[in-house]
Design a protein that fits this description.
Structural class: alpha/beta
Largest sheet: 6 strands, parallel
Shape: elongated
Distance between the termini: 13 Å
Number of helices: 15
Order of helices and strands: EHEHHEHEHEHEEHEHEHHHEHEHHH
Radius of gyration: 21 Å
Strand order of the largest sheet: 2-1-3-4-5-6
């Protein structure tokens, strides 16, 4: 198998999560990086981008071979945050078995995912949401859809002792506004440090190093599903994201809401559920009695390092792909 692992043209911190999974996949001796001549890559890349701007797809234009059971010359896989034909076009044009790991499989994208799968003759799609996998599987024809939860590489993160952490509360990404608006004045009045997105869309930690250190410095990491913070995008799909696992790998106490699939994966609820009847009193009480939560933090850290790594997730995908 060959892994398509070309970097994005415009870097975003979310790409680091893609790299974590790609690194785990390439650690398997059965997988090598996909290769293509630079001139051919530029030519196909340019054509794919031009067609996308025009609302067309290179796969349809070239009538990519999608015959079920046809002899395959190659075996390709790509990891993507969201569908990007430009990333796969130079390789997926070949007669091949084609596989994807897709992070963002939100309901509004399902029609697009189905079209891509059909146009390019994709054989296997692994998605990070159990609900998305179930819905896509129900309408699938030749393609197999599988749920593979997001993971983490604990070795890529740092942690500090609970006495060394100097950020009381951290909320990465878009805020849970109903909660934020209540805890902000309470934390400020109590002299607690609270790091959050002060300007919409402005990333708190723009570099990987800053992001890792910020998590390591934090006592509480607020994590809620995108169905709460991004309802226009996530719809009714409630899923565990890597932010929960990154927080646990950094020995943060996770305060928020655990999706049902996460409780199922862990075998217990690893999240302190927000009490919206009095969220300010709750968060101040947690900080006042933080040592009482150390066993949960340590238990979560052990669970993540033992059972929720990207290596474990790749092993599950490999069981399908190399069966």
């Amino acid at each position: 198998m060959q892994l398509i692992n070309r970097p994005p043209r415009n870097y975003h911190v979310s790409h680091d999560t893609v790299v974590e999974l790609e690194t785990a996949i390439l650690a398997d001796s059965r997988v090598t990086p996909a290769d293509i001549s630079r001139p051919a890559e530029i030519m196909v890349d340019t054509a794919a981008r031009a067609l996308r701007r025009a609302g067309a797809d290179l796969g349809s234009l070239l009538r990519v071979s999608t015959r079920k059971g046809a002899a395959m010359d190659r075996d390709y896989m790509a990891v993507m945050m969201e569908l990007d034909p430009v990333k796969t076009a130079p390789w997926f044009i070949h007669r091949a078995r084609r596989s994807l790991y897709l992070f963002d499989a939100w309901p509004q994208r399902h029609a697009e995912i189905r079209r891509f799968v059909q146009t390019w003759g994709v054989d296997f799609v692994f998605v990070s949401s159990s609900e998305a996998a179930e819905r896509l599987r129900a309408s699938a024809d030749r393609c197999g859809f599988f749920w593979i939860p997001e993971g983490v590489d604990p070795a890529k993160y740092q942690w500090r002792s609970f006495f060394e952490k100097d950020i009381d509360v951290l909320q990465l990404g878009r805020k849970y506004d109903a909660h934020h608006d209540v805890i902000l004045p309470a934390l400020s009045a109590a002299g607690k440090s609270y790091v959050y997105e002060r300007e919409k869309g402005k990333i708190i930690y723009p570099t990987r190093a800053e992001f890792v250190i910020g998590l390591a410095r934090s006592r509480i990491s607020i994590c809620v599903p995108s169905s709460i913070t991004h309802p226009a995008r996530a719809g009714d799909i409630e899923t565990m994201t890597t932010r929960y696992l990154q927080s646990m790998a950094s020995k943060c106490l996770v305060l928020g809401h655990a999706p049902a699939e996460m409780v199922c994966l862990f075998g217990y609820n690893p999240v302190v559920e927000i009490d919206m009847t009095n969220p300010a009193a709750q968060i101040l009480d947690i900080l006042e009695n933080f040592e009482a939560y150390v066993p949960l933090i340590e238990n979560n850290f052990s669970a993540v390092t033992e059972s929720h790594t990207w290596k474990e997730r790749w092993d599950r995908m490999a069981a399908v792909l190399f069966d």
